[in-house]
Amino acid sequence: MSGDALLFALFLVAVVNVSRYISTLRTLLAVMRECDPLLYQQVDGRGFFSSQGNVTKQIRLFHYIRSQQYQNHHDPVFMDKCVKVRKLFILASTYLMVFFIAIFVVAYLGV
Asked: What one-character DSSP code corresponds to residue 74?
């Protein structure tokens, strides 16, 4: 198996997982708009994926999910979406790290 084929396969897996993460994050924001409008405003839900989005507010959502503050929420659907977003973020981040390590291995070690 060539290094190029390995990189291409890892790249496809990483792209699929990142797109799954973004799609689930979009559905989380839609659920959040209905069940917790105050949190939706605090994380800049309307402008989250726009170029004018407020990064500090977006990071607030990251910390909210990372610290698992959603466990005290009253809506089980919202809690399930938060758990799924958290798991997919970890999975997508891991695949991206593996992809970049594989680039290093293929490029510098000649595998």
From this structure: S
Q: For 18-71, what is each residue's pLDDT tens digit?
A: 999 999 999 999 999 999 899 898 888 888 888 887 888 889 999 999 999 999
Residue pair 12/97 in contact (Cβ under 8 Å)? The answer is no
Report how far residue 22's alpha carbon sits from residue 76's, in angstroms, rounded to the nearest whole number. 21
Residue bearing tokens 């809690």: 79
List the Cα angle 37/41/47 in 5-degree steps: 125
Nearest-angstrom CA–CA distance, 106 and 79: 40
> By C-alpha distance, which of 79, 93, 107 is closest to 3?
107
- Length of the chain in terms of residues written: 111
**φ, ψ for residue 28 (rounded to 5)?**
-60, -45
Give 102-106's long-range contacts (Cβ < 8 A, gap of 24+): 102/6, 102/7, 102/10, 103/7, 105/3, 106/3, 106/4, 106/6, 106/7
